[in-house]
Amino acid sequence: MAGGYGTPDRHLRVPMWWDSAVLLVAVAVGALTMAVLAVVQPGLPARLPPAFVWVAAGGGAVALALADTAPTGWEPFDVFLLMGFGALVPLAAARAGTASTTWLLLVSVATLLIADTPGAPVATVAAGAFWALAAAGASTPAAAALAAAAGIGPLAHLDWPVATGASAAAVAVASLPVLLVGLARTGRPARGRIVVATALVVVVLVLGAVAGLGAALSARTDIDRAVDFARDGIDQLGDDDERARSNLRDAAGAFASAEEDLTVWWARPALLVPGVAQQTRAVTTMASAGADLARTAADATEDADVDSVRPRNGRVDLDALAALQDPLDRSLSSLRRADARLDDIDSPLLVRPLADRLETLRTEVTDALGSAELAAQAVAVAPDLLGADGPRRYFIAFQNPAEATANGGFMGNWAEIVADDGQLMLTRSGRSRDLTEGGPDPEGRRIEGEPEFVEVYGQSAARYWGNINFTPDHPTVSRIVTQLYPQSGGEELDGVIALTPHGLARFLELTGPVQVDGYPEALTTENAARILLHEQYLLYGQDDAEDREGFLSDTVAVVFDTLTSGELPGPRAIAKELGPAVDDRHLQLWSRRDDEQALFQRIGADGSATRPAGVDSFGITTQNLNGNKIDWFTHRDIRYEADWDPETGEVEATLTATIRNDAPASGLPPSVIGWGGDESLGQRPVADGENYIWLTAYTSHPIVEVTVDGEPAGDLRFEELGHRTVRIYISVPSESEREVVIRARGVVEPSSRYVLRPLRQPMANPDSLRVQVRTPDGWDVRQDRLPEGVNVDPNAVNWANAQDQRVLVLDVDRPSSARTGLDRLRYGN
């Protein structure tokens, strides 16, 4: 699929019967061409000069030299071997005659009819031509040599995954009779010399293989220890750096010991033995790359004082931050070298224990490389984010999902912070109405350059700041905020941060509890969301709105003062504590600079709701139209069921959303369960405890049916953020639920991989999201590629807690029982 999530499986795209038909036609074309030539120029085949034998030998040598195969893994020697073999087969065919060459061509054509390889028509045309000559009794040594070169060349380029070594076996079966018969028909003195030389080569190769395997066995224990040490060291980075360094140094020592065992002089001949060379070279590369990587990583963790960049009194030491760049670059370079060298070990001939160890080391290096690249990217942009090149101004939108909006909740409060030379300062804060009423011309404000937003939501957000975050896409919200803030009394902004009480609670994990004057209970990680989303509205009644607003403003100031006084943990601890808030979109980040936004996107903090290319994206958003905080009682159960056909790409999907309202009809303040709208603006009054919502469903496919509690609904349909959407207005009475069902039908690119992306909305209560994908009979699910906890039934895959994953990836394959006989021969079981 597009977008970097997968490549269409070739099983789905190659019409094998068509390939075979083309090759059979090529055989006929070759035979017919030779027959016509024999009629037009009857004596031409017999007049082919003997020099054409050497032309054929040269062609065979060049064809095999260009083959993507590595008998030993040492490129110069491999080219020498392949060129020699490519020349030898045509030379032998010239002596072997018609019968042996016919056998070679039969095997070649039969194999090429089954397997997939470039150059197959060349071999089949040559086969048809040679068979026509043989049938006419006009075959010559030059013709046999040319036909053999045309037959053996494509076989050497064969990629036949039916079994390990199948391609080499096909070459051997085709060429061995030619070589043996050619040898038998060689003069006695020359034949004797060839036999003796061959015997000597075999003896040397056997001795080399024994020596190489002995060296590999002696190094195996060190390799096993080294991989274990390296894995433990990488896993401990950030949690116990001292122990991580110790393990990495032990890994470097064990790798070096293994490398010493493998590079002794008497083991070197093993590098010339096909099959054995790959084992020796793989182990040697693992040892050398592992030793280099472990030494560099151990040194870098000692040189990189990550704790030195921990915030102190609201300031980050930018010099200490810059000092991390060099050790990070060294680690990154070492990881990239190791990654490239391990990727170069690409041989299907590796024995299973070695292949498993190689895969373990590759996985560890790949994961560590991703982490190092992220760290280097963060260190590169962090100084500018913190005002190294001049003051940077950021807007913080405090969103309250107890009054739900698509991007995270009603923005009752906001703040402005400035970063200058690493120092963070709170410069402004207030209520959203301050911005709604601010600026020289509140009624004249307009949103420019966002045509989709204006088409879907209108211009009301330009005049009323509470409507800005109706879109679920944080980059869109941020661009509009940066556009309107200067018109509303603020200054030019460099970035926008969206934060909910759930996100704020994660910051309290860094600072510890904070006490806000006037509130009887300190705010902690455990109670902050509960207090800010609900309990404050119980303490401060409808007549105490001014005191409640003061409490919210004081909370912002107290939390910021606590964050910028004293010492916070280091970057790794901060990232670990804030990670859950990022994952659930309770903390969203945006910068107007592309390199900084790329970092936010990489860590999943960008809050983008735009559908990625080639991905089946789906979800719902609900907007509170009551003007109260009733969504503290809202619970959403979402199910997505898709029937997906990998062969055609057809998808039939059902998105079911059950909205449950647990709010009572009485006993709570109007600010929680009462109607807070304005009838003069055309807003619909609701009963106490009733939740009137605007629900938008997002799908990747055309919507064919919408129902609410089984009745047709949803006439307002449009496109937004790359999705097909439908908007529905529904009322959920007190202590009841409503069910919305959306059915959609469409097509994704045919592929053996299906990627889904749930569109998530930050809510007061986390959603329950279940996903089921069903496939037709004849497909096997690649369970080894699914995370733990995913249930696989026949023809169905079930994610019970899909809300915990950013993307869901399903890989399937054709089982051997569902493939035709020819498919099994081409692709294996």
Overview of this protein structure:
This protein is of the alpha+beta class. It has 24 helices and 20 strands. The strands form three sheets. It has an eight-stranded mixed sheet, with no helix packed on it. It has a seven-stranded mixed sheet with strand order 12-13-9-6-15-20-17, covered by helices on one side. Strand 12 (716-720) and strand 13 (723-732) form a beta hairpin. Helix 4 (98-114) packs antiparallel against helix 7 (166-184) and helix 8 (188-236) runs parallel beside helix 10. The chain is elongated and about 115 Å long.
Keywords:
829 residues, alpha+beta, 8-stranded mixed beta sheet, 7-stranded mixed beta sheet, 24 helices, 47% helix, elongated
Topology:
Layout: H1 16-40, H2 51-65, H3 75-96, H4 98-114, H5 120-135, H6 141-156, H7 166-184, H8 188-236, H9 241-262, H10 276-303, H11 318-323, H12 325-344, H13 352-385, E1 392-400, E2 410-420, E3 423-431, H14 432-436, H15 451-457, H16 460-463, H17 474-484, E4 495-499, H18 501-511, H19 528-539, H20 545-563, H21 571-583, E5 587-591, H22 594-602, E6 616-624, E7 634-644, E8 650-661, H23 670-673, E9 691-699, E10 703-708, E11 711-712, E12 716-720, E13 723-732, E14 736-747, E15 753-759, E16 768-774, E17 780-781, E18 791-793, E19 796-799, E20 808-813, H24 821-827
Parallel strand pairs: 1-4, 6-15, 7-16
Antiparallel strand pairs: 1-2, 2-3, 4-5, 6-9, 7-8, 8-14, 9-13, 10-11, 10-14, 12-13, 15-20, 16-19, 17-20, 18-19
Helix pairs in contact: 1-4, 1-5, 2-3, 2-6, 3-6, 3-7, 4-5, 4-6, 4-7, 5-6, 8-9, 8-10, 8-13, 9-10, 10-12, 12-13, 13-22, 18-19, 18-21
